Amino acid sequence: MGATAKPKAKRGRPLKPLITKEAAVDAAILLVEREGIDSLSVQGVARAMGVTAPSLYYHFKDKDELLQLVARALLREVGAEGGDATGWKERAIALAVATRRTILRHPNAAPLMLRYFPRNVMLRAYETTLEQCPYAPQYHMAILEALEKITYGASLFAAAAEAHHIPAMPVFDADRFPRLAEALTKGPDDEALFIETLEVMFDGFETRYGNSKKGKLK
Question: Looking at residue 135, what is its pLDDT?
Fold first, then answer.
């Protein structure tokens, strides 16, 4: 009598879908870090994931949606770096430093944060900052504007230099520019310089707004 043939096992559906938006965003970030911003396309991300471009397009309306989600993912990394600072100024500086560190971890992807800056992700952070702000409400938008522009301006400038492998300050003749040479020699480096710049800005807030919390905008 021959052996009884075993019935074939039915293939079940995968426990996890082969493609998710989160996986696509992670693949896009890795692709940009490895090959640069010009390499980023739906087709390139699909190849990196081992799937077809049409199947990836099923999860995204278009390339812009993918790029927007990459920018949001990078910004969300900032939350993990916030630290346990106490006090309004200390927390604001910690958030700015965390933002700079995140952008410099992904210098090739930094232009996406500038082009697709996801302000809707920042609304809660804005609200918390203003809730704790010691100055009068009529000064709040000027303070937010200063914090945002100096943080992202300085961070994206540094990331651009990093991505293109060029120094932030070009080599120059110290005899021709002696004051600049002295400033670079005696000043703090990198992150310490960024923090010192923020401290100067907060000193400016205190000088301009500190003694007139209920007054009119100067």
Answer: 95
Cα gap 66→30, rounded to integer Å: 14
Confidence of residue 4 (pLDDT cuts 50, 70, 90): low
Q: Quick one: pLDDT at residue 119?
A: 75
Q: Whole-model pTM?
A: 0.77
